[in-house]
What does this fold into?
Amino acid sequence: MTAPGTHDDSTTGAEGIAEVAVTLPVPGRYHYLVPSSLADRARVGARVLVKFGKQKVTGVVVPNTSKTPVGVKLVPLSDVLDVEPALSPELVDLCLWVADYYEAPPGEVMRAALPAGSGVGAKRVWSLTEAGERATSGGQGTALPPKQMVLLARLANAPMPAAGMSEAVRRNFVALKERGLVQEVEQRDAVRVRLKRERIVQMTEGVDLAKVRGQLSRAKKQLEALEALVEAGGMMSAAALNRLTPNVVPQLVKAGYVTVFEREMSLGAAPVADGMSVSVPPELTPEQVVAVDAITAAMKAETRKPFLLHGVTGSGKTEVYLRVIAETLAAGKRALVLVPEISLTPQLAARFRARFGDLVAILHSGLTEQARLGEWSRLHRGEATIVVGARSAVFAPMTNIGVIVVDEEHDGSFKQDEGVRYHGRDVALVRAQRAGAVCVLGSATPSLETYAHAQRGNYVHLKLTVRPTARPMPSVEIIDLRTHLPDGDAFLSSPLRNAIGETITAGDQVILFLNRRGFSTFVLCRGCGHAFRCPHCSVSLTYHRHTDRLSCHYCGYHQRIPDVCPSCGGKDTIVRKGLGTEKVTEAVAAEFPKARVARLDRDVASGAKIEAVLSRVGRREIDILVGTQMVTKGHDFPGVTLVGVLCADTGLNIPDFRASERTFQLLAQVAGRAGRGDKPGRVLVQTYRPTTPAVTCAAAHDYESFFNAESATREELLYPPHGRLIAVRIDGPDASEVASLAERLAQIAEAVAKRPENAGQVEIRGPVAAPLEKLRNRTRWQIWLRSSDRAALRRVARALTLVEVPSRMRVGLDVDPISAL
It folds into this structure.
């Protein structure tokens, strides 16, 4: 085992020793002997099968950066699973950087970069020999002791794992083995998903068709096959060639004109949303021209700063991406585009396909594993030169990258919140730097960290301040709910209700935004005050009318509402309180009976269902769309002229230092859905806090003022972008044990922070119970490490990773956390 490091060798070293990152949540990397039979394939980036403890698991060969451990007997690699390495040396190097920066197991990062379902494991099992099969089928096992007869009968159905059995059972197996009836063998797990393989015919290097013509003057079929190969670029599938000229491949191989090999068959491009045809690129605005020219010029320069493309909603950032990518492809390079939750933005994927066709690969969790593997393979082989995907697409198997785009870079979904807690945007910046590529971060509401980098000159700041065709930004009106009291269920103030009526009468569309799903957000007994809460999590249960269930949005627990209160036994005392999108949708439909009302949240839409709802809005089959933040995700609906925010305060009450920033971003993004067509847009924001900067600045489309106010507040507390944070998250099944461990870790952190090399640069906050103290039956505590000195901060954090904790407890480091929950 060695300490993480980065090195760019492509061999395993002269000693015949490989360093491997196993795809398990364990720290460090491990050394294995390389048998001579595997030496040519055991290269950096190759998947290998290795023995790890009592099991065999998948690992990835990494650069051999440390000396062989002294006094440790190394075991050999069991197998190399790839003919060609699955990961390039550059991608392995990036994964090791991610593991080092985010204090994560390197093998876990490698697994994120590998294609879906590609892991292989192995275990020792007992199975029947041929003699054992004859004994069970012929009844010869009747002479055995009863317990051994039972074991043989069980093996006739399926092998049994050798691990975990009692000593008595093992002795019976050993006795059966001595009789030659059973054997202990290795059984590999079935690969969950794989692509079909096809035979490929390739012209032999150096074959000159002009010279061959004379030699094959009497073998017209062979000559036709060679001509077809040349026309296809020197390579085509054996099946396709046989359809043109049957039964000639063996003769061409024998003559040395071609070679034949196998490779995974392409599935073709993954599907995207319908309705986006190839169109002529629109004329650019002067600001777009400046942006495209600046980015393409940077591709040719030796120093490449990242770009912040700061454009108001509807200003044409996507068209800038498309033009830059076209220039990238013309230069013979490739492009990587990251978007938040791509399954929610099918229009974006469709625009890229409309412009670049099947050169675009789509990667996101909404695809089947088979489809994801197909897209991964197209990228790996170079058949696709553009990838559009969600967070994990930052590990796409691409080389020669010219540009990396991170659209809506502020979006929190770029941060992985469990396992390897990496931030896709920040990994994209590092990958671009290492690949010599340009990185473009686009947003109408940049994160405070990104905007601060632009102010300091670390990023080039490009602005798009106007919408194409001179469409104005929508007018925004703040409605004080203390003055204009909303009604009960639809939660509409009189100004918003009147505006909806006017919009529907004019034949236009409305979006109503409320970031809470469900029918009632809490249920209680009015007799005794008993509240229905999740037994596994520290949250109230939400009532969903369409399922008639109380549900937990964190662990999935659900139950019916009882007829009587379980606390006081009261009848007819249980009431449903609070507001969710389900209740609002029903109430709005009753308020406007002639309008076609639909809902978009995770209760009613996922995958293809999301696209179906959005397509109906695009076709103007929906008059009023009620939704959660899913309706803010970059959708472009020309028919929407009114956006109503039912309660802007929902996110402001969350105990999180980013609550104000998220609220501003959501309000600005949802407001940007209005007025994207020929008619001007209008936005009405209902709030009980009409003077808070998150609301007033979003209403004024004034990012600069919000940044200044929020940045000043954060500077006092040394929060990003003025300081760095690491959250130490502790959880376990026993509340007292978790609290005790958190206290011990905090004491260790305090002691390390006081060491001379850290010079008191690290502030320790906590331990404290997490705002959501209990999730999925596990109690959660936190310790926050805060400093402006990154090196000192990491020294304190790493000291905590060395503390041994019980197996039932978990301690994780969240580097650069984006949430306090």
In short: The CA atoms of residues 366 and 773 lie 31 Å apart. Residues 1-14, 273-277 have pLDDT under 50 and may be disordered. The two ends are 35 Å apart (CA to CA).
